[in-house]
Amino acid sequence: MNILLDNDTSLLIFGFLIQFTSIFFIFLKKNKSAVFFSNTINIIGLAFSLFISIKFLFTSNGNTFPLFYNFVKIDTLSLFFLFLIQLISIPTSIYIFSYLKHYIDEKRNVRSFMLFFILLIISSQMIVIANHAILFLICWEMMSMTGFLGMLLEYEKNEVQKGSFYYFAASHVIVFILYIMFFILHKLTGSWFFDEYQKNLQIIYPVTIFLLGFLGFGIKAGFIPFHFWLPQAHPIAPTVLSAFLSGVIIKLGIYGIFRTYLFLKPLPEWVGWLVIIISLVSAIFGVWYALAQHDIKKLLAYHSVENIGIIGIGFGLGLIGAANNSLPVQILGFGGALLHTLNHAIFKSLLFIGSGVIYQNLGTRNIEEMGGIVHRAKYLSIFFLIGSIAISGLPPFNGFISEFIIYVGFFKTANELKNYYPILMLLFAVGLALVGGLAVACFTKVNSIIFLGTARKEIKKFVINIYDYISLGLLSSLCIIIGFFPTPFVYLIGKIIKYDFVNYSYRSVLETIEWNNFSFIFISFSSLATIIFFIKKYFNKKYSSRKIEAWGCGYNNITPRMQYTASSFADELNEIPKSILLYHKKIDLSENVFPKSFHFESHSEDLVDSKVVIPFYNNLRNILDKIQFLSQTDIRYYIGFILITIFIYSLLSFIWN
Amino acid sequence: MLEGIISLIIVIFISPLFAGMINKYKAIFTGRIGAPVFQPYYELIRLIKKETINASSSSFVSKIAPIIIFLSMIFVSSIIPVGFLKPLISFNGDIILFAYILGLARFLQILSAMDIGSSFEGMGAAREATFALFAEPIFFFSIGSIAFISGHTSMYEIFNSILLNNIGYEIFIIVCSISVFILAITECSRMPVDDPNTHLELTMIHEVMILDNSGFDLFLYQFSSYIKLTIYALIEISFFYPFGKQNHFLGILIFIVGFLTLSITLALVETITSRYKMKLIPQYLLFATSIGILNLLIYTFMK
Q1: How many domains does chain B have?
Q2: CB within 8 Å: B52 and A543
Q3: ipTM at complex level
Q4: How many interchain CB pairs under 8 A, A with B?
Q5: Backbone phi, psi, residue A460, to 5°
Q6: Which domain does B292 fall in, by range?
Q7: Torsion sign across C-alpha atoms A101, A105, A108, A111
Q8: Please, which pLDDT band fits residue B105 given cuts at 50, 70 and 90?
C-alpha cells in the first residue's frame, strides 16, 4: 500500500489541517476573540480547500485518489459533494460573525457552539471522502452529534429541548439502520471498503440493501413520511445551523443514497418507481405543508422536504433509465438530481440566513407579525427575492436550470422507452408543474407578507451589518451565475455521471441541450429590462410621477391590520387538502350584535408527526411504564437479571448445539 | 431570425387590435355600437401620457414588476410560431421555458399587487395564486400531452408535427384545443372566470391586482395583457395549420380567419355567460383538466 501524496493531495490535506487548527483558537481567553479568530481561520481553511476541490473537480479525468491506506478515497462524486459543503460553509461561517455577536453580549457559551460547528463542517467533509464503512459511520455519528450539540445553544428553552430531541432520536434511528446495512454488506463481500462494494457485482439481495439505505439516508434527507423531524428541528436550531442543516446535512442523506446506489448498481425498475412516487409525494405535500405555516423557519424546513422530493424525482428517473439501459435518461435523471442538490443548497441557505437576519432584528419568527421590511432593508429584500424566485424554479435563476433538466428527462424517457411511458411521464411532469405552482403561491406569500406592504408591528430598528450582506451577496450571486451561465456547471455534472455512474464516450444528451441559448435569452432579457426601465424613467419625468395613499373605497383610515395576512392569502389553497394538512380554523365571535373583538386562528399540524410518531411514542411509553417495576433501585435485582440472562443464553447455546 | 423578428412585430402590433375586435363584437352582440376597433391603441397612447401614481407603501417591486411582466410576454410570444414563420426563440425544451416565463410573470404580478398593502389587491393576488394552480395542469394536459406523444419539445416543432391525416389524432387535437380555450379564458382573465370590465373589486382577479396602477405602469400592464391574449389566440390557431404543406397564402388566410373566429367566439362566450361564483371556478378548471386527461387516455387506448 502506498500513500499517494503528490503535490495536489498534500494541498488538500493542508486545507483540512488549517480547518483543524481553527479549533485551537476557541481556547483564547475572550469569547469575542475566540469566535473571531477560530471562525476566520476556519473560513481561510475552507476557502483554501474549496479552491483545491474546484481545481480537482474541473481537471479531474476520472481518477481517484486513495489516501491513508485507502481509508479515504476521493472520486468525482466525493469531490462534487466536498465542493458543495465547502461552498455553503463559507457564507454560513461568514454569517456567524454577525449572528453570534448578540449571543456573545448575552454571555452564552459561544465557544462550545463554535467547536461543534467547526467539527460539524469537518466531519461532513470527512463523510463524503470516507472509503471505509467504519470510518464513514464514525464521521456520520460525529456529524449527527455535533449538529445536535450545536442546536442546544439556547438549551434552557422548552421548544429547543423538544426540537433537538426529535433530531437526536431521528439521528440514532438512522445510524442504527446504517449499521445494519453496512454489516450486511460486510457479510456479503467480506470487506469494509466502499470501492470493494462498488467493484463487487455479485452482491445478493441488492434491493433489500438499497431499501435499507434509502430508509436510513432518506430519514436524513427528509422524504415524506420520514420528514417529521425536519420541521421540528429546523426552527429551533440557531439560524447558522439551520442554514447548514438544510443546505448541507440533508444533502449528505442524498449523498448516501447515491453512494448506496453505486454499490448495488443494477436495480430492478420498480425500485425506481417507488423512489419517484415517494419523491413526488414529498414534493407536493412538502410545499403544501409549507404553505400552511406561519413560522418562517418551519416553512423553509418544509420547503426542504419539497426540494428533496424534486431531487428524488431526478434520482428515481435515473434509476428507471438504468433499469432500462437507457443512457440519456440516466444522465438527465441523475444529472438533474445532482444539480438540484447544489442549487438547493445555495438558495436554501440564502433564505435561511435571510430569515435569520429578520429574526435578529424583530425577535419573532411569526410572519404574521412582519411586513414592510422592504422600506427598512431594501437589499435584504432583493436578496430574499432572488432566493425565492430561484427556489420556485423560475427563470432566470439556478432553480430553473435543474428543474429544466428533470423535465427534459421526462420527455426523453417518453421518447426512448415508448410504450406506456409517455403517459406516466406526463403525469410526473404535471406533478412537477403543480409543485412549481404551489411554490410560487408559497413564496409570493412569504415575500409579500414579510417584506411588502406596511409594518404590522412597529419595527424599532433594523440593522444589517456587513457580514450579513457578504454572505447573502455571495449566495445570491451564485444563484445568478448558475442561472445565467449554466454551461460549465452542466458539463461538470456530466463529468461526474460519466466517471462514476455510467461510462460513455460520445457527447451526452446533457451537452446537446443548447445551454448557451439560456445565457443569451436571460442576458438579453435583463438588458432589455434595463432599457425599458430608463424609458419608463424618462416618461415618468416627462409626465411626472408621485406617490399617494392607496385607494380604500373612500375609507380614509386604513391601518396595517387591514392588509391581507399570510393565512388569508393561503386559505383557499389550504382548504383543498384539509384532512392531510390537518388544517384547523377557529373563529370566536362574541355574542353581541356589535362585537368589539374577534378571535381567529388557523394552524396546521403534521400528519405523520401527530398521527404516527406521537401515538407510537405514547404507546411505547405506556408499555414501558408497565414493565417499569423491573427497574429497581436495589443493585441486587440487577445482578439477578444478569444471572438470568446468562442462564438463558447458555441454555439457548446448549439447545442450539 | 428575420422570420422570428417579423412574427414578433406582428404579435406586438396586432395584439391591441385583437382586444379591440373582441370588444367591438361584444358591443354588437349586446346591441350597442361600441368603441372603434382601434380604441385599445388610443388607450395605450393615452396611458403613456398620464401621470404615474404609485401607492405610498409601494417599493421597488412595483417599479420593476410591470417591466418584467411586459418583457416576459414579449419573450413568451417569441416562442410561439406565427403562421409558418419560425419563431425567434426555438430550441429543444422551449415549451418548459414558455410555461416558466409565464410563471415568472405571475410571480411578479402577485408581488406587485401585494406591494400596495391594500386588501383589495391582496384578494386578487390570493385568487390569482389559487387559480393558477388549477390552470397549470391544463397546459400540460393539452400542449404538454401533444409534446409527449409527438416527442418534440419545441413549440415550433410541436405545432409542425400536427398532421391532420388521422381521424383519431384529429379528434385528439380538437379536444386539446378546447382545453387550451378554457386555459386561455382563465389566463387572460376573461368571462366566465374573470370579468375584465367590472368595477366591483370583490369579483375581480386580474383587474383588482392593477387597481392602484396608472400611467406608464398601467400602459405596460395593459399591453402585456393584450399580448397574453394574442399568445393564447396564436396557440389556438396554430392547432389548425396544415403544417404538412407550407403555403404562405394559406397561412395568412388561416391567420385572419382564425383571429376573426376566435374574437367572435370569445365575444359570444362573454355575451351569453355570466361570471361564475368564485367557489365554482376551481371546478370549472378541473373540468378542463379532466377533459385533457380523458382525451389523452382515449387517444392512447384507441391507438
Answers
A1: 1
A2: yes
A3: 0.93
A4: 239
A5: -75, -55
A6: 2-302
A7: positive
A8: very high
